[in-house]
Known about the structure:
The complex is a heterodimer of chains A (249) and B (326). By secondary structure, chain A is an alpha/beta fold. Chain A has helices at 37-53, 68-77, 94-105, 127-135, 188-195, 236-245, and strands at residues 2-7, 9-11, 33-35, 56-63, 81-86, 112-116, 139-149, 152-159, 162-169, 172-176, 199-202, 211-217, 227-231.
Amino acid sequence: xxxxxxxxxxxxxxxxxxxxxxxxxxxxxxxxxxxxxxxxxxxxxxxxxxxxxxxxxxxxxxxxxxxxxxxxxxxxxxxxxxxxxxxxxxxxxxxxxxxxxxxxxxxxxxxxxxxxxxxxxxxxxxxxxxxxxxxxxxxxxxxxxxxxxxxxxxxxxxxxxxxxxxxxxxxxxxxxxxxxxxxxxxxxxxxxxxxxxxxxxxxxxxxxxxxxxxxxxxxxxxxxxxxxxxxxxxxxxxxxxxxxxxxxx
Amino acid sequence: xxxxxxxxxxxxxxxxxxxxxxxxxxxxxxxxxxxxxxxxxxxxxxxxxxxxxxxxxxxxxxxxxxxxxxxxxxxxxxxxxxxxxxxxxxxxxxxxxxxxxxxxxxxxxxxxxxxxxxxxxxxxxxxxxxxxxxxxxxxxxxxxxxxxxxxxxxxxxxxxxxxxxxxxxxxxxxxxxxxxxxxxxxxxxxxxxxxxxxxxxxxxxxxxxxxxxxxxxxxxxxxxxxxxxxxxxxxxxxxxxxxxxxxxxxxxxxxxxxxxxxxxxxxxxxxxxxxxxxxxxxxxxxxxxxxxxxxxxxxxxxxxxxxxxxxxxxxxxxxxxxxxxx
Lengths: 249, 326
């Protein structure tokens, strides 16, 4: 099994969204970076499939040179190789992103390509579907369960009232949701091994965006501070009063 | 004409699709509004759409469409696009709405803007359309320009209210048999497994008692469960808790978990990261129980109690019991 997982470097936003002065990006000078939660589970799922069936996991990211950190993080979970599509840090729209991924992997015969259902930041819900279409492969989205048997993928989606099951032949593309598994924590030796694994770098050219970001806006929030009902257990009667007012006690 | 892809189940139109229709009516600005319905029960659902301003319902009829197949739905959309030439295609920002429009986008080589909350002043018809859309599960908004003569837009859930119109009759129904190709049906629901429902569902609970890192351990959730039991509430948690393995992911509230909208959300030991707030901001009221008066959750909560939750939560439980016994 050759498995590819596509991930995106995104900031760890913490408790507040703060924009750069030009309103084009989040102010990230004081933030760490990670990958989207769905993608963390995608990497874990890929590594488990390869542990079970043999083969190799490749991680691909499109992003600035620093995105190599996120590829190394995925390697510490168990991915074997990395591909970094290097950008100048400018965001690529979903069509351009899918195009660059397809161009980078078209010659490689991956049995399974795994995406997060949507990225944590842009949330465009479409790169995996675009890549699958360009490669002529089936794509099943939003998976909470996946098993591979006899070159077929059994894919489970949570829907109201239960689960829908799809069965598709490999090679296939899937997009997964957080909760499909509980990702492992990388061990220290695994982190050290990750430093020595190969990362191939390619620098694609960014086409003109067709979904063009004009500016970002922090939505008008709650706009008030919480009313402090009290400190410690002595506040319990005040809490129960509030519950009664709301009709829930 | 603006075309809306309408989801329905058991002959009833989905609430999110009614919201998408209201959004599309705004976008249409007086142009006619058409709907596309696919699958079993489509005609019954179509009959309800006149009351929402839909003039014509295109109903795709083929028994192979009874089980959901995103490629087949996309085929139905592109056929109506070819025949009826809409100026925009709109769907709900649901799992299936986003999935189908992404398939349509790739087949027609068009951009697709997911989870829009508003359209700009220009309206449809030109070579581009400005929209506002959600990023970070709604914690941030983006003003974006869709460069396409046929914009494809999904509508963020609960960004727009469904808006019935007065005096409209049933829409004209135009049935059609789409020319489905085998590839359109290559991905299709093969089986549905019913879930075993136990307790109050997180998404529908009137009260949610939710715990974060401050709860300290899996065992610490015992006192939250006790309080929840008294309030007929569901127990939720933050992402830190599921990552630590203290609670299953099905309990997680947040951008990548469940979005909740209870009357009261009780956030115990939850700092209030944007990823968590994206899941609980639909609550009517939020009560934060936190040891840190500077925690970001206090900027999103209505009420707060400051202190050690392992003392406060049992005290609230005891107070509730006392209040009920008198």
